[in-house]
Amino acid sequence: MDTGNKQKRNRLIALSFASVLLLLVYGPLAQWFVVADRFVYDSFAANMSRPVLDNAVIVSIDPSQRRSESTLDIYGELIGKLKDVEARRIVLANPPEIADGEALPDWVATLKNGTPVYVPTRHRFAKFATRHGVVDVNPDNDDVLRRTDLWQLNDGVMSPALPLAITFDDEQASASHRLSSAEDAIYLSNIVPLRRIDPDDLIFDRINRRSLSGYTVFLDADPELEGAVARLPSGQFATISEITAALLADLESDRSIVSPAWVKAMEWLAPVLLAIVAVLFLPDRSRRDILIMSAAVIVGLILIGCLVLLFLNIRIDLGRAIMIFAGVAALTLWLVEDETKISKDAFDRGSNFLAAGRLEPAFAEFRRCPPSETLASVMYKLSLAFEEQAKPERAEAVLEWMKRTHSSIPAKAKPGKDGGGVPQRLGRYVIEKRIGRGAMGAVYLAKDPRINRAVAVKAIPIEKEFEDEELKEARLRFYREAESAGRLTHPNIITVYDAGEDKGLAYIAMEYVPGIPLRDFTDPTRLLAPKRALELAASTAEALDYAHNQGVIHRDIKPANLLYNPKEGSLKISDFGVARLTDNNKTKTGIVLGTPMYMSPEQLSAEKLTGLSDLFSLGVTLYELLVGEVPFKATNIAVLMTKITTEDAAPIASRRAGIPPSVDAVLAKAMAKRPEDRFSCGAEMAIALKNCARFS
Fold it and tell me: What share of the chain is helix, strand, coil (3-state, %, to 5)?
């Protein structure tokens, strides 16, 4: 199935899934979303800063301490005293009920005189009070009072709620846009308790009554907690007077939490819009893009809901929208194939075809991979293989594809001058400068003029080291090992392009990789973090496992041959095929090739080597990267060989913070004297190193 058909199929599946989700979230799952929305709202609302009604107190009569028939008389006496001191307003949020046939107290006639008095609409006091409003406490089915209507139906007529009726007498507050009938509900969150005054203190002049001049006084017979009628989202229990005071404070400060009509429309429209967006834009994205987009949208919706509530005091439920988008994103994430896996599989198939000489299938597979240094290196080898098969037009097609897709890989190094015997050319490669020197020769930065590509060329003075029959044998071995190394295609191994001989120098042209040799991090003052050192060693072990499975042994694993790019976090093994240039790892002068302090016991004894020798050297390398010194040191080669073959390395876990004890067990196994006592392969060692890195 081609990419276009896959995207159409994925969109159709995503559309069907989104439709089912929409039906569920507004059908069988609706109640679940109500519960979730309430939980989210309660969590935020409980901690919101709410306005306080200025200059307000509550005077509560405790009926349990008085004769029931005297409660109305006390109301009248308190109202009279409050009118005398010119209180700003008196609110009877929950006055005692009076039956229809029962006589009203005489003081009711005075309610309209002086200080305004506000009472519930459905009470018999309503016709005598300054203004009245509906008091209707309706908690949700979980017994939490979250909302109240500003306008309520009363005997077929829309009447204002009591807090709104009180606000109508405040000229400044009545101009608020939040008092329109369109925004007909306000939400409660928490309350700031008002000061309470004992009625006896007013009646018997125990306090200065004049101090209440200009105050809003709530008068009720509902003692704190005992008279509570509802629980708020904050968990507080509130009386009708406290609820009325909180709503009045919200209205007068224009900070009431509302849910306008457009919010309700948005709550229905947002899930549909996000479902459309998800269906249109997600199926043709990569998994990484889907994750990034989904995270951004979900976090954005959550932030919008929180910010709108905290700063605009508007309550909006975006839970369904988040659920719809997250659900479609999860589905498309599952439907979209993993591009990394697809690319890796294509690269592996292409490498296998290339190794088998099936160049056309290899070219087809490699073209499915994204541009990279490793792919460019392999494609270069493919072009050379086409040339060897006398197919220059196909080689040119490969090079053209590389130029088109790898225009910025690699960045060209600037030419530089280097004195002291630097050749101008080796084979077809134009030498630009020397970038390294070792015991076996020099490494140059060069350019392949055929494709204007930067390469690293390692040159070895083979004619100076060997003569006559030895030289002939060394040449054969050199090309055989270079050919073996050239078959290796792994992201952690420097790719060998070509090998040849010119001007008495045997050279190997390989991938040019900007990086720092790990030997720069063996200085005790510049050590890598233990976790990073273990991860790099694990990458090396995996690459060695790949090489060993291809029948190639490195023979000279050491920090200098491991190139690390800190910016990209990548590692490459260099010098595959070089260490076996001569038989038994010796030059004509008897000098042991490689670095003895990293060699395995069997390598020093000139025994037949296996890949387990490389694992020993990797263990020594990791030891040095962790503590800044090699495990086996001596003043001469004989003593060093004795230590390597007979002594165990000293433990290091206690020498440096961050190194778990398990590292010593891994190092001991890697540096076991007998090969059969070591890790069975590089993959096994890599797993052990990764486990150590997890606890570093």
Answer: 50, 15, 40
> In terms of DSSP H, where are the helices of 356-422?
359-366, 373-388, 392-405
In the chain, how long is the greatest CA-to-CA distance? Answer: 136
**Which of these, 285, 272, 369, lies nearest to 321 by C-alpha position?**
272
DSSP designation for 696: -
Separation of alpha carbons 326 and 291, rounded Å: 10
CA distance 539 to 534: 9
Split at pLDDT 50, 70, 90, the class of 689 is very high
Structure tokens at 472: 């002939």
Q: What was the pLDDT predicted at 320?
A: 80
pLDDT digits over 555-573, tens only?
889 998 999 999 888 999 9
CA dist 687 and 678 (Å) reads: 14
Please report the pLDDT score of residue 467 as a whole number: 67
This prediction has a pTM of 0.45
Cβ(614)–Cβ(603) below 8 Å? no
Same fold, 339-405 and 410-512: no
Structure tokens at 547: 């090489």
Q: What is the CATH number of domain 339-405?
A: 1.25.40
The sign of the dihedral angle between the CA atoms of 156, 98, 117, 166 is negative
How is residue 256 written in tokens?
Answer: 């009431």
Tell me the DSSP string of 403-446: HHH-TTSSPPPPP----SS--SEETTEEEEEEEEEETTEEEEEE
- H or E element that contains 57: strand 56-60
Distances (CA, A) of 160 to 61, 154, 169, 291: 27, 9, 12, 49
Domain ranges of the chain: 3-45+260-335, 56-254, 339-405, 410-512, 515-696
Q: Record the tokens describing residue 279, joined without a space.
A: 């269906």
CA angle 92, 95, 96 (to 5 degrees): 170
CA-wise closest residue to 440 among 380, 528, 359, 507: 507
Percent of the chain with pLDDT over 90: 29
Domain 515-696 class, CATH top level: mainly alpha
Ramachandran area for residue 452 (φ above 0: left; ψ -120 to 50: alpha; else beta): left
Q: What class, spelled out in words, does domain 410-512 have in CATH? A: alpha beta
CB-based burial of residue 71 (10 Å sphere; 0-12 exposed, 13-18 middle, 19+ buried)?
middle
Long-range contacts of 363-372 (CB under 8 A, 24+ apart): 363/394, 363/397, 363/398, 367/401, 368/342, 368/343, 369/343, 370/339, 370/343, 371/405, 371/406, 371/409, 372/409
Paired tokens of 37: 């929305």
Neighbours of 531 (CB within 10 A): 16
